[in-house]
Specification:
By secondary structure, the chain is of the alpha+beta class. Helix content is 37%, strand content 27%.
Amino acid sequence: MAIIDIVKFEGNDQEFVWKFPSENLRLGTQLVVKPAQVAFFVYRGQICDEVREGAITLVTPNIPLLTTLISLPFGGDSPFQAEVWFINLISKLDNKWGTIRPIQLEDPKYGLVVPVRAFGQFGFHIVNPRRFLEGITGTAKVFTAEQILEYFKGVVLQAVNVSLGKAFITEKISVLEASVHLDSLAKHCSDAIQSELSKFGLELVNFFFHSINIPDEDESYQRLKVIKEKAAELNVLGRDIYQFDRSMEVLKTAAANEGGGAGLLQAGVGLAVGAGLGQQMAQQAGNLSSQLPPTLSFHVADAGKPLGQFNGTQLHQMVVAGTLKASSLVWRQGMASWQAASSVPELANLFNQAAPPLPPSVPPTG
């Protein structure tokens, strides 16, 4: 084969490792290494001399290790055989990645496990070309950006799988709030990715998320949204008002279900028991029960809205629950018009009783 006089790599932004196609060299051959390139001489699988940017004429002082291995004589244009590998040091920034299947993560705020998908982009460049050549190229004559991406896709996804869950916990955010925390979440993942890439002489130039989301049709996602809405309602109303509001809904249902009102009212009281109010409500209701005949009934309206007709037992429980107030309007057969409950003689004593002690405060969770 002909002796090669010029060795160079034209290169492009897609080829990161390239082997010169001929091994027939001689002393006096010109080696051209362009900016952002490094050339290595490889002899029988051993990486020898490294040449950085510039154009040099191959003489024994330029390639001392190779000269020793081959026993090249000094001077002259002696032929020899060796491989020349070029490494491209440019940055490749447009590498897209995405989870193959959703990652099962527990939402740190609401405690529900949901499937999370993530998509993004990262950039890299080779900072230790000798380590890269030793650790990854093997017998390949060309190693493209696509091959590097494919090789390290598992590294990236593994780091995302492990780091994303830890990041949500560290940042104390819900999966539903991920879209406004993409930068801080990416920082957690990029640290783990860089730790792996550095083993092969690569450096992560950038890493970011395009999106982190949950499939809309997923059942756990729908449950998580409901939990978040309830938590938001509780924060806005306050815990005690929220509990009374739930009791009001039960009382309205009781009034609308003929024959089932008493049972549903018991369920309403049960809500208060669950919130730590049941004992006080039961005791207060017992104190009032002897003062109003159970057969006596009134229509009740509050804030301009009719709530329904309630008997004496139900009225007792409504006062204790706070859903029947002194200012609430009442009416029954024989009354000329609606009146404030506290102005009706049969009901007035209900509002003169000592109020039950306040329940112990329960700090909000989350």
